[in-house]
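Q: How would the structure tokens look for this protein?
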Amino acid sequence: MIVKIKPSVLTGSVVAPASKSSMQRACAAALLSEGASEIINPGKSNDDLAALDVIQKLGARVVENEDGSLTIHSLGVDPVGEEINCGESGLGIRMFTPIAALSNKHITINGMGSLYTRPMHFFDEIFPKLNIKIRSREGRLPLQIQGPLVPSDIEVDGSLSSQFLTGLLMAYGASVTTPVTIKVNNLKSKPYIDLTLKVMESFGRKVTHDNYELFHLEPQDKNYEPQIYTVEGDWSGGAFLLVAGAIAGKIEVKGLDIASTQADKEVMRALKDCGCDLSINKDVIKIGPSDLNAFHFDATDCPDLFPPLVALAAYCDGVTTIKGVSRLAHKESNRGLTLQEEFGKMGVKITLNDDEMQIEGGSDLFGTTVHSRHDHRIAMACAVAALQADGEVEIEEAEAINKSYPDFYEHLKKLGASVAF
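A: Here is the predicted structure in token form.
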């Protein structure tokens, strides 16, 4: 699909999408809870739909209610087939694989698209220590596993992604019979672990930790309990809306919890630092353009903010520096290089220097043709940057947004953007 965006002035109000990070974790917790859980404000992205498909393959029954909420009936992990497919969700594959291993059945774990190139060596190294048989394609999908997982004290490397730890914590939470400790070295993206622990606690499963280095799980009478859970608004998708407002017109963004544990809430710090017109109330964030200045930002714990922050930096006077480039190699695309190349087509000079990215902003962006690289966040970043270019920007393979934010272009149109499909 090709989407064409012309220079636009935004105005009005929009509600941020549901958080797929929160939604997928809630699906996993509901699967692990024996009984009926209700999910309010469920997400509808491809990653969310993949999570719902996975929990049904692992034994849950999902009912859509008239008000749009979902009721998830579960008796715990009891696979109904021999394969689960996590779509293109990195969180899904890393979280549901240990959960699927709670069963003693032979299961093939599969995915789509970029997941076939993303490293899964973690499972090859860790699973044998947990009584899980595993066979992979030299650390890549598909994975063939057979449990059951037996929790034990273990030491893991958290430098590649926190998502592996999320999967272990949720699976351990359902199966510990004696106190166990997970030791984690070099943990990245700590806020995502905060979100995992928050969702687990919402479903009755408490985990304690010592400075994110030692995670302690104790046996409980009931490990997970069915709940009514409301999926919070998504700061990852909301970040693109906020940046759009900062560069293209005064808007209101609703549905974002300023007290959220989501890592990408840190976008607010960059927005404050760059000097945009910003007002934060309990239920709404008002944002608009001003004299925008370059900023410094450490995205090591929130690497998904690179794309929207690059779009923001392109309109800031001076050179913006964003740290954490090493976290970008194994996303839907190699985002450091992809951002450099696609924004380069619009006239933005981006330099990659070890773990830092420098973006030279303040010059006019020009209309051209760019490509999403099949990466949802690249498509959205290019769309936001196009809003104040000097001509029409055409985005190829623009449907990549469906992975996380299928209503994104419609929301831009609602705010007054000139968007043509």
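The chain has two domains: 3-17+233-420, 20-226.

The CA atoms of residues 151 and 172 lie 6 Å apart.

Upvote if useful.
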